[in-house]
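User: You have something folded?
Assistant:
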Amino acid sequence: MIGSVAHADPDPARTQTAMEDYFSGEKRGGLVLVGMGAAGLAAGGLLHREGGDLARGMSYPLLGFGVVHVAAGIFVNVASRRRITQFTDQIGTDPAGFVATERTRMKGVATTFTALKIVEVVLIAGGLTMAGIGHRTDRKRLEGVGYGVAIEAGLTLGFDIFAARRADRYQDELAAADVTTRLDAGGARIVMVSHGRTF
């Protein structure tokens, strides 16, 4: 029979490692976004300058997504570097408080990724529909815009799927940070690590 229950702080070293691993991945993700954006800008500029109506239509979403990807990539990379410094200080002074706050923040991140993926699937479908309408009505520029939107939304969806999986792994690590100390009826101390489950 269990006599009493107490909660100990999460392991700061494990929490620090999980945090650094996640945001190192975010920094790399930011660079990937910058690369995607630069490629989109280069391809969009070339298509607009050298191509006909179909190519020019494709160039518009490539250029638009390219600007967004570069800006987002720079933001993610810089913000991740700052968070590593900020969160290292928090883990050093209050690891339990950091884990509690970070769990809440990451739930919001997960919700955001779900919303983004839904939007991107809708954009892919909308782009392909637009391309089909443009093809049937011989409106080459509209067709090109549709292809461009579908391509860029598909690439962004792929990126967000990988980023969401990385966020899920980080959430699992945060869930595994729970450490519970139990005292049985005889006063023996039992330490149990909860990997996101209730014992």
About this structure: Residues 122 and 189 are 54 Å apart (CA to CA).
